[in-house]
Amino acid sequence: MSVKIASGSAMEKNKRDVTLGIVFILLSALGFALNQACSQALGSRVSVFQKMFWHNLVGVLLFGGILIKNRMGPFGSDLRLMSLRGIFGFLSTLFVVFATTYTSRPLFEISLLTSTSAIFTMIVAALWLKEKIRPYQVAVIAICFGGVVVTVRPSPELLTDPWCLFAVLGAAFGGGAYCVVRKLRDYANPTQVVFCYGLVSCVCSLPFFIKEVAVDGNPLASGMDLVILLGMGVAAYAGQLFLNLAYQRAEASQLSPYSYVQNVYSLLITLLIFQQSVPVWSYVGAVMIVGSSYYNMLRSRHEAGQMPRQIPMEAK
Q1: Would you tell me how many other CB atoms lie within 10 Å of the CB of residue 4?
Q2: Is residue 9 part of a domain?
Q3: Residue 118: helix, strand or coil by DSSP?
Q4: How would residue 57 be classed by pLDDT, with cut points 50, 70 and 90?
Q5: CA separation for the pair 157, 162 (Å, rounded)
Q6: Distance (Å, rounded) from C-alpha 169 to C-alpha 149?
Q7: Residue 150's Cα: distance from chain center in Å?
């Protein structure tokens, strides 16, 4: 009887982990959407590496303080994986910041392109983490990507727009970073992972930031621009923290489709804050994205509750 109870407890824990993972990834997507919105609101008034340095410094100070308060080391037990996470995360954010700084396209379209990270996540998870990809998950990714295509309606102009390509490159490095996060769950606390990402980003950005200010003569952000920069940092690191919490509780292949929900947040920001017009096809794409992601949630929760019970012979 005790074995059955333990097995039942394991199933309930697995279901809770999947549900929490989904909630955390939705909060993470909101943070990243707000981060991109802040970057686009600043535009080219604030240079790319100034954005990179200041908003990552917010994360270093915030999560460094948490580590000091809890008397934790900064790097976990696998420095190689932590470094890889930091580099992938830095490159992913850098390409997205370039795209949101210089593009003339609505935030919603750039968000849709960066959301293709879910595809890269599933590919890397299958090849590197050896996670099993279920047929329905492939279908979910295909429908989500179809929603992206319907919304953006690719054209020769879109495919040759360098900032659109930068957004896709950001998605590719982001997919790799998410899988490293999943790998790190046994080697580091989420706070350590986020701190290391911010530290690597600050160190890599600083020389370029100094050049932009001291050599190129770009002014330092001040006034409302500085407030938006700080908001950009808070949003980004809320997204990073919830992302790490999510991928430490469920498989990357189960959670990756939910990154598409960021597009819904970006759509609302585009309409309500930037007051940019959005064509009807964008709404069709959003329905495809949200609908397929919701289906994936139901299937993932069902599978989490169907773990086989292995009862030893002597307990029968």
Answers
A1: 11
A2: no
A3: helix
A4: very high
A5: 10
A6: 17
A7: 22
Question: Has residue 239 been placed in a domain?
Answer: yes
Q: Looking at the domain assignment, is residue 217 inside a domain?
A: yes
* Closest alpha carbon to 130 in 246, 252, 259: 252
- The tokens for 208 are 């370029």
Average pLDDT, the chain: 82
* Cα dihedral 247, 59, 90, 226 sign: positive
Tokens of 65: 């303080």
Please, are residues 133 and 253 in contact by the beta-carbon 8 Å criterion? yes
Tens digit of pLDDT for each residue in 256-309?
A: 667 778 888 988 898 888 888 777 887 888 788 778 877 877 777 677 665 444
Positive or negative, the CA dihedral 203, 209, 215, 221 is negative
Which residues contact residue 189 at a Cβ distance below 8 angstroms, ignoring those fewer than 6 apart? 72, 76
Domain that holds residue 76: 14-315
Distance from C-alpha of 238 to C-alpha of 241, rounded to nearest angstrom: 5
Q: Hey, CA dihedral for 302, 291, 28, 111, is it positive or negative?
A: positive
Residue 3 lies inside a defined structural domain of this protein? no
How many distinct structural domains can be found in the chain? Answer: 1
